[in-house]
Structures are given as C-alpha cells and as structure tokens.
Amino acid sequence: MKSIPRDNRSGLEWRLSPSRLVAWGALGVLLAFACFYNLENYPIIWWDEAIFSETAANLSQTGRYAFTIQSPDQLSDLDYRISVGPAVILPVALAYRLQGVNVINGRLVAVAYLLLAMLALYRVARSLCGSATALLSVVLALLGTDVLYWGRSVMGDVPALALFLCSLGCLFHGLDSDSGLSFLGGGLCLGLAFTAKEFYAAAFLPALMGLAYQERADRSRLGKRLGLFCLGLSMPLLAYLALKIAVLGSFSRAIHHFWQQKMLLRHEFFTPLTLGRFYSESFAYLLGHPLFWLGILGGYCLGQRDGLSPRFFLWLANFLLWTLIYLTAVYWYRFALPALFLACPAAAYLLRRAFARMVSVLPHRLGQSFVAVALGGFLLLWYPPAGVEVLGAMVSCRSSPPERLKAFLHDHVAVDCLIETPEYELAFLDDEHRFHLMPEFYFVESDAERLVLLNPRPTKYDFEKTGADILILGSFGKSIFRQVYPPGQVARNWKKIAQVDFYEVYVRRGREHYLARKRNPQLSRTLGPGSPKPESSPLSDVQDYPFYF
C-alpha cells in the first residue's frame, strides 16, 4: 500500500503555526455563530421536526415513545411517522427532561450532532489528504451545502451523517493501525447511524467491500476484523429491537412494525423500483452542484497519487453508493448530504493542488497573493452559496410565526375548544389548547406537476367528523394537504376569522356560541413587525365578526 504524504512538520510546530491557528480560530468562531445564533427562531419549526420533537416531549413527560393523535393524552406508540430512531429521540427527550420542553433545548442536541458531523468530516479528510486540506473540506461543506439548515433542526439526517462519518473515520484508523477497537467502534457508530436514520444500513456494503479488499490475501484477519465490526454494529441494532419489543409487546410485532413502516416510506428511496421513474430534480441538483464535480476530479487526482489504497477504495465505494442512492431517491436536498460531504475532502485536495501548481510558477509573494485572491474570487462567483444563504436567513429571522400564532390562540381561543390542524408544530408548542392532528399520509410522488399521497386507512379521512371547533391551516395544509382539506369544503363549512403570518384560522359555522368572547386589543401589535397600527394588523379582516379569538 502506498503511503499518503503527511505534513513534514512536527505536531508541535503545526499547532504553533500562526496561520493555522488563525484559520482554526476563524473556523471555530464561524461554527459557533452558525450553530447557536438565533437558534430558537431559525429555522422555523415545521412538520417533520415537530413529529420528532413531539415524540421526544411525550417520552420525557409520559414515558411513552409515541406521537400525538389528539392532545393531551391520545397517543400512538411508535407511530409510523416517527421516521428517526432512538439515537435522535432519546437524547432530545433527555434534554427536555432536564431542561424543559421547548424548541431550543431540542435543537441544542441537534447542534451537538452538527458539530460532531464537522469534526468527523475533518477526521476523515485528514486521513485522506492531510490536516490543511481537512480544514478546507469543512469550510466547503459548511458554506456549499445546506447542512446548517437541517443540522439546526431536530431531524435525523445530520445525526445519522455524523455517526456514519465517525464510522468511516474509525475504519480509516483501523486500516492504518490494525486496531481491533477501531473496527469495533466503526461498527458501533454505523449501528448508531442506523438507529438515527435507518437507510444508513446501506453503508454496511462499502465497509464490507473495504475490509475484504484490504484483507483479500488473509482470510483469518478478514474474519477477525469483520467479526469485530459486526459485533459493534449489532449492539445498537439489538438495543433498538429491544426498545421496539418493549413498546409493542412482542418480537413479531416489532418485525411487522419495521416491515410495515418500510412499505409506507419506501417511495422516498429507489423510486425506479417503487414508482418506475427517476426524479429529474435529483439529477439536476447533484449533477449541477460544483462540489460534486470538484469531488470527482479531486478523487481522480487522489487515485493518481495513492493508487487504489484501502482507504481510497473505501472512500470511493461510499461516494459511489451515496451518489447512486440520491440519484434514485426523491429529490429532497437533505438526502444529497452524504454524497456532498464525501466529495468535500477530494474537492479540497483538488483546490489546494491547483493553488500549489499556480503559485509554483510565481517566485514573488505578491504573485502568490494574487493567485490566492483570484482563486478565492472564482470560488465566490462559481461555488454555490447555500451555507451563506442560510446564514443570511438566520440573521434576518427575528421572530417565529408559530410562536405568534400560539400567542394569538392564548388571547383569542377558549381552552376548551378542539382545534383540527395538519400543522403538527402547534401541538408541540401549545400545551394550553387541545389539538386533533391530521392522521398519517405518505408521499408517493412529489414534483412541480403533481403530488400523490398514500392513505394507509381503508376509508377516506374526513376532518369534519372530528368535532373540532377551530381549523388551522398553515403552509402544509394549504399546499401539500389541500386534497385532505379541500378549499371548497373549507369555504362552505368554516368561517375565516384571522390570518397570522402564513396560518389561516377558521371557526366552524354555527359553533361561534361555544367559544368565549375574548379579545386583546394589543395583540395586533405583537403578531409581527410591520403592523404598528391596528387597522393594518393581521387581524383587520375579523372586525366584522361578532367573536374575536
């Protein structure tokens, strides 16, 4: 195996290098700002995050691993909509138990996983390309992808990515040092990644291929390494299975639950097998992303430098796998994060190599500085500013529409009313009112032309039969779930009484007398910026109604 060139300075000299200390300091400040600034308001809590946050809240408050059907106490144990596993739910529930249930406490756990993802990426990139290149790869991932958006939310994608990268780093170390603990740790981290997001089970195949390639001439060593890896992998999986058995009551029910959930969610991945089609949007996003092509070119250069070394083989197998998975999956951008993160070390290596080649022909420092500025300017113009856009939105977001709606409900809606909504975040944020949440529907197809939903129940869901007094429709209810809440039916049977940001609040016609007459004249000035006068407030369209909620 060819050795990978290392920095020829000692560790002490590297640590004392002023330029690298400045680089580390700048990156640390950027990461701290990007992870923690305005964490409560941005991103705005939404449908998926609300499912996982509400599940963790139920676990911390009632001891049940369940999602809410109707608050406060009608719950569904291990609901199929809980598509993240205990590696996410359990630490968030612990944070809620220790610090209280609110948005920011759950997101602090998410941010911890985001920081772990960046550290694990640095570790993987350093194994492949050296320390300076690893630092650049973290910058490319931070600024060139939308990992900040997903990583600041209680979601499963970034935690699973972080644990997967930890597994890859352990395997790299094991291939170098022949450390049994590294292979055990690699399996353990991959198992934890599975318990965060189950499709990361696919990463077992490249790991198996990498180990087989490394030890193709020694089957006994292969068996030992593979045994340690599988031992580590099995521990989180068995714990996850034990949790399902404890919640559902039997092994057969746990297996049935796993299979049924995969059948309901299978259209998110390998759509050619389930839908008979590819999503052109997936190809357009990944193949149009400069980081992806920089990774391909950088991977070619790494292959030329190192040959097909075990580490390069393992990196390449994973990069190809996650590229294939995204190209055959639904086009949601967060599913492209594994492929883009794996592209970062190779892309950083290519950029550093290009910079070194250009400055090598320029003897003067002024020329080298010019090349650095020119290359940086080129990247600013050509490289996608996804991370910069997230940072800009994070700074400009000053309040939370769901929190403003919560304030509206507190001042205008009687607590004994039943509220029907598909906006799950409201049940998580508001413990004062009773919410009946729309039951599960699953995406079959989703693109600009059409949206197909799968109803797992034998009968059509009729939201009119829930007995709700209030209906609230937000961004999901007015778009994706229009077929569940048809606008014509809503207009016939419900009266719009207010709009708070993108939320529309309706009262069932004929039910006004069930509600308390409550009005807070100051509320119109607290619902958001830009409405200092009562006549221009979001409540100006309810002045003709006899009741104010």
UniProtKB/TrEMBL annotation:
Keywords: Cell membrane, Glycosyltransferase, Membrane, Transferase, Transmembrane, Transmembrane helix. Residues 89-238 form the Glycosyltransferase RgtA/B/C/D-like domain. Its main location: membrane. GO terms for biological process: lipopolysaccharide biosynthetic process. It is a multi-pass membrane protein. The chain crosses the membrane at residues 21-39, 108-125, 131-151, 158-175, 181-205, 226-243, 282-300, 312-329, 335-354, 366-384. One of its GO terms (cellular component) is plasma membrane. It comes from the Bacteria. It holds the Pfam family PMT_2. GO terms for molecular function: pentosyltransferase activity. Residues 519-549 are annotated as: Disordered. It is found in: Cell membrane. This is Phospholipid carrier-dependent glycosyltransferase.
